[in-house]
Amino acid sequence: MTTLQKISVPFLLLVCYLNAQAQELTQTIRGTVIDQVSQTPLPGANVILLNSFPVVGVTTDIDGHFKITKVPVGSHAIKITFIGYKEITLPNVIVNSGKEVVLTIAIEEDVMQMQELVITATEKDRALNDMSVVSARTFSVEETRKFAAAVNDPARMVTSFAGVVSADDGNNSISIRGNSPFGLLWRMEGVDIPNPNHFANAGTAGGGISILSSQLLANSDFSTGAFAAEYGNALSGVFDLRLRKGNNEKSEYTFQAGFLGTDIAAEGPLGKNKGSYLVNYRYSTLTLLSKMGVPIGDYSTDFQDLSFNIHLPTSKKSNLTIFGFGGLSDQKSEAEKDSTKWESEFESYNAIYHSNTGAVGIKYATILNTNSHLQNAVVFSGNEIFYEQEKLDENYTPFLDYTQKYGNSKIIFSSVLNTKLSARYNLRSGVYFNQLFYNVKQRMLNEDTNIFETQLNSEGTTQSIQAFSQVNIKANDKLTLNAGVHYLQLLLNNSFSIEPRLSASYALDDIQRINMGYGLHSQIQPLGTYFGESIQNGVSVRTNEDLGLSKSHHFVLGYDRSLNDHLRVKLETYYQHLYDIPVKAEDNSSYSLINRQWDYETEPLVNDGLGRNYGVEVTLEQFMHNDVYFLLSASLYESKYKATDNVWRDTRYNGNANITFTGGKEFKLNKNRVLGINIRSIYSGGFRTTPINVEESIAKGETVFFEERAFTEQVSDYFRPDLRISLKRNKAKSTHTLALDIQNAVNRKNVFGSYFEPLTGEVKVAYQTPLIPILSYKIEF
Hints:
Layout: H1 3-16, E1 26-35, E2 46-49, E3 56-59, E4 65-72, E5 74-81, E6 87-95, E7 101-107, E8 118-120, E9 136-139, H2 141-146, H3 154-157, E10 164-166, E11 174-176, E12 184-188, E13 191-192, E14 197-198, E15 209-210, E16 220-223, E17 237-241, E18 252-258, E19 261-270, E20 275-285, H4 287-291, E21 300-315, E22 318-333, E23 349-369, E24 372-392, E25 398-420, E26 425-446, E27 451-474, E28 479-490, E29 495-507, E30 512-523, H5 527-531, E31 534-536, E32 539-541, E33 550-562, E34 567-584, E35 605-625, E36 628-642, E37 648-650, E38 657-670, E39 673-684, E40 688-689, H6 694-700, E41 713-714, E42 718-730, E43 735-743, E44 751-757, E45 762-767, E46 772-780
Parallel strand pairs: 1-7, 6-8, 12-17
Antiparallel strand pairs: 1-4, 2-3, 2-5, 5-6, 9-16, 10-11, 12-13, 14-15, 16-17, 18-19, 18-46, 19-20, 20-21, 21-22, 22-23, 23-24, 24-25, 25-26, 26-27, 27-28, 28-29, 29-30, 30-33, 31-32, 33-34, 34-35, 35-36, 36-37, 36-38, 38-39, 39-42, 40-41, 42-43, 43-46, 44-45
């Protein structure tokens, strides 16, 4: 069967899917209206369904709750008003028959005690965090589900945003404004979490696909620079993830099956105090795609994960939340016992790899009074990465050739206090204590002595402390200021950083505003770098135990304008100065940790490196209007670094330019059926690479680079169009969605890089992922 024939089968299924009578279906919209800062419920707020006829409206009860029943399925707009607060409109609230819509709506007190200013709550260029006003925006669950080839993965979805480039389309590692993917921070429910991705390599912030299902996520924030003071230990970006609470009045379920596997979610009431649970389990085998003829690699690949959020009110003013996730992922390959079929040395090995990650958190939140909200949390997390390979001898008998095991675990204690000092002043302060554990083992066969030798066998523990305080000042109805400081200290060697943060937003009028931000940021190195050992004078020593923090100054200036109620343009320019970057201690070296992709560095390093990233970004976005949305983003940037050779060079991630177009159209076939067509097209300058020294590679039997010519070559430009076609059908008590995602729809061979192949003695080119079709079916009930 040809690729075209494979893709045409789902279209026939779509056609067969269009054969039922339409009927009027309804669902319930309910939720809670709360104060944005203190989180206290607001009784007496008006909630109005705007596009209803006649207009339907309700008032929140003494606990801030509201309920609107018999709402027709489709897209709706909801307006919330309350005396002394800014009026808010939520456009495009999607109502399906399969599940109730449950909202938590935070509204902001009006400094001027006036009602003229209308804020659109789902303007996705603004963050949910009111102290993030530059280089930050919210992303919705609908986007992770709707964007072409995003496959419900937040990290893949944000590559549609300005300044964000995929570091490898075979996984979801992202480079933000020319930074290493390691500079990214992941947070959940206000606390740092480990890299929440399957198939993660040691020392990275990305992986094959997210462990977190969109079933669990609520609208969340994504930042790309000059972060608010509460964010620390990051140099490039922040995912600030928020979890959705389960339905606390009725049980609901979701089941999805497709080429990637199965996805099962359940939610419902728990306990006597209107608590709730939400749990999601996924099991996948990419081997199915491989058996269909899709070339996704030489491994047998499987993964599964479980995530949950349990919400338990303990009183009217306090609640306990237990949340967490865990993911198991593994890959296996077996060498074919026929050397005449081997085209690369790798094909002569058996290999086993697994990457396991998990976190469990307990959060206690309480309203101290009408103006203060306290959140305490403890999170236990860890990950383990294991790799083992066997080589076949001339008789095709396997013998152990290499093995490694990396492990990290962490216990975090946090406490954050939000206080509304007045309508104009909000104060947020917090402290985090991190207990860190690490172990690494690495063994390799010495081919000269035929002895299995230990290269690394190290473990350790240390602590880090973070603290912050920031104030939000609404000077008047036009000017908002945020000022704060973040403190980070690694107790292993007492390296620390005191980091001032400042941002401001000024409304020129009711349709345009300017923003500015500055922040000093720092990041602890991967723990393996501190605890890794090397041999010096025949003695194993930790050469980098005293290594300091990497640091950078962020400067951002932005302007955005509403062209109409649904169309917005945004311009940002930025400069980032990086310093104290670890580089090799030897003279005239081009090596810098700023270019690291994965793994740990055990060679002696010093904090003498520099870097700089600067550029301009433009975004034109239409939020869903007349069933059409689009997002056009473009970036021009430079990313440079300097090591001990004192030469300014391009970083690995300096592609210079990136442009993306993401958009979609929904066609209402009748009242209960919606056909969606979504596209995404990405065009980027190629990443930088170092030329291969062929003669030295032949002599050593492995890839050897011209280090003095580091990153002087650029791979060809990157282009990839993606397509998503979906058909959603609402029935009396369920919603059904059939979807086809096609990644790299034109099957372009994008270059990843080059390597030396010892088996043939030639330099070969490695390519990124080809066309991959993913068919799925989902039912919500």
